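Lab channel / #folding
Pinned by the channel admin:
"Please post every new chain as: sequence first, then the structure tokens as a reply. Keep commentary short and put observations after the output so the thread stays searchable."

First post following the new format, from NK:
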Amino acid sequence: MQMNLKKNMLPAALCLLLCSFIPQQKKINIFSIGDSTMCDYDEKYLSSFGGSSLYPIRGWMQMAREYFNGPVIIHNAARSGRSSKSYRSEGHWQKVIDSVQQGDYVFIMFGPNDQKSDTARHTDPRTTYRQNLIGYINETRAKGAHPVLFTSIVRRKFGTNGKLEDTLGDYIPVVRELAAEMKVPLVDLYKKSGELVESYGPEESKKLFVYIRPGVFPKLPEGKQDDTHLNERGATEIAGLAVSELKALGLPFFK
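Reply from TO:
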């Protein structure tokens, strides 16, 4: 019996020895910072409107997890209502950058809340907004990590010609310019999301955003029409566009 035990242990020991020589894939951490169009929404929030179904809002980075494979860990630190200014002033950035290590990636996407008029969030696209983005880029690189810039997604606002109207102004070209100047990879979600929304058209594109019929949620008796925030379908489609662009950039997140 002892002889049989030794025979059984030998293959297991050999397997362990061989496995020790197989190089282990290094984990890739992705930290995403941004606003409500990017962030995670937990079930507690989604169920807080009452009714039998969950509130249909989703962030695109929340839905992007299923597209990544291999040793990738997503840390979605985007926060609803934050601008490039308030994200830092409220301490959210400090928590992120304290966790970032050499070789990690930081996805950066702001803009819509920077347009707000309140002093806690407002930035000027050509001065303070630009400076804030430069700060995030430089501090990420100082940790030996890699920044990736994203332009904001479009708002669903169609003109009489059936084309989307620009609602973000200089907040979009500033990101594109910085990406070129500082040699930062760019995912132009403004362009890609605009093409997607226009392909659906003025009426069908509502299926990508938070459109709620009256009476579905007790806390929203009159329903809701939200042309800024995505539902699950919209967030999933935008996530797919973002991932396609990341693949085109050759970033090491995919097998």
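NK: The longest strand covers residues 224-231.
TO: also worth noting, Residues 115 and 122 are 6 Å apart (CA to CA).
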